[in-house]
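ok trying again, last paste got cut off:
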Amino acid sequence: METIGGDAHVHGYGWAGLWSAVASLIFLWSMVQQYVPAQLEEYLTTLSRRLHAAVSPYVTITIDEHVPDSFGRSEAYLAAEAYLSATCASSARRLRADLAAGSDRMSVAVDDHEEVVDDFRGAKLWWRKTKTLPRGNVISWSAHEEERRTYCLTFHSRHRGLVDALYLPHVLAEGRAATVRNRQRRLFTNNPSSDWSGWDGRVWSHVKLEHPSTFATLGMHPTKKQDIIDDLEMFRDGKDYYASVGKAWKRGYLLFGPPGTGKSTMIAAMANYLDYDVYDLELTAVKNNTELRRLFIETTGKSIIVVEDIDCSIDLTGKRKAKKKKDKSSKKKKKTAPPVAKDEENKVTLSGLLNFIDGLWSACGGERIIVFTTNHKDKLDPALIRRGRMDSHIEMSYCCFESFKVLAKNYLHIADHELFHEIRQLLGEVDMSPADVAENLMPKSKVKDVDASLGKLIKALKEAKEEALAKAPAGAENEEEAEDDDEEDDSSSSEEEKNGKNKND
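nice, full thing came through this time. structure:
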């Protein structure tokens, strides 16, 4: 008994001594490591890895947090982190919570030095997140010199082909999808080019996109609304189709119509339906075509690039104005040199915008929608809005009865009323924008009075009808006067031409 007890004591003392020795070695190495030359440390690390690879059947793939020559985080690292958070975080014992950029809720990720296991088509794979601290107290000017985080993926060598061909693309696709699901949609606006330089220079600034508009609340004829939804779904799911026909994965929409017909609301509904970001491009802040190209390159996929009121932004109509009549007096002409044209390099040109929409640069990236809005479609150059650039032309018209029923359901929560018949008749006779109809339907107090709201709308429609009837005779008179002026100008110009010929004779 004593011998057994003594052996047990000796073994217990041996294990305790072993762990004590290991702890001492670790502590000693941590103290000595900072004095070991970097080349020697790298050599020892490489040697240990070679010895491990010679006896181990396992393969390890590392994914660094930062990419070379960049301050940004690696897309592969972010995708792996999002994938593990969505699929394997439940099995981890240590987690890290963070509020991701552009998100409205906390995200949970695997903490440093934590290991999780994933199964993929019968293969077992180990993920481990490591963190390496910088050597000594050195001020770092680069992200690579700070804490270095890495995901290490370990698997058996017999699964090498499966991991390369299927698992890594699966992680990338699922990670991107998880990022899109968790993010908050953003509304971007372009910064002046003077703010692009510097360590914190950014081409775009953004805020959260919190517009509540949806296709369900959009005041539009249901049939037309469904056609737009079907077109958007075809685009969103058409990556392979666009590649098969040799087209860049982008689509252009021209929204045109009078003010207040819901063009901006339509853009918000499209963004909410597709879960896309919105880039509101202010052309007046862009100096030249080079800056315009830079702005496009800095946009991301799954986005809508918007130029509102493009006919008013800058002179991009490109109209070729034909002279209908000659100068009234040729004596006033001066034989002077033509004025020096403005430097084309200091402004955005029609050619630059066309290349932005449909040139080679438009194929950089994918899954982008370009939207132009205008109140006057006839003012735009046909080359700017032809099919292939603005693929779909959507007229945002005045409120019809079907649109009114959608608005009545939104604002008053009613599907039918005895006053609907009169409203239908008035809407067929009067042009009123959905914004004006909605304003008249909106209750002015917490107590909803349906009859009062509908009565207010009927009153507004009748007043608009009377104004239209009163303007009709005045409009006809103005048109007649304009025609008379044109005839007088034509006759005077013809007389001047005859007098000039007689003098020459």
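cool. DSSP finds 15 helices and 13 strands in the chain. The radius of gyration is 35 Å.
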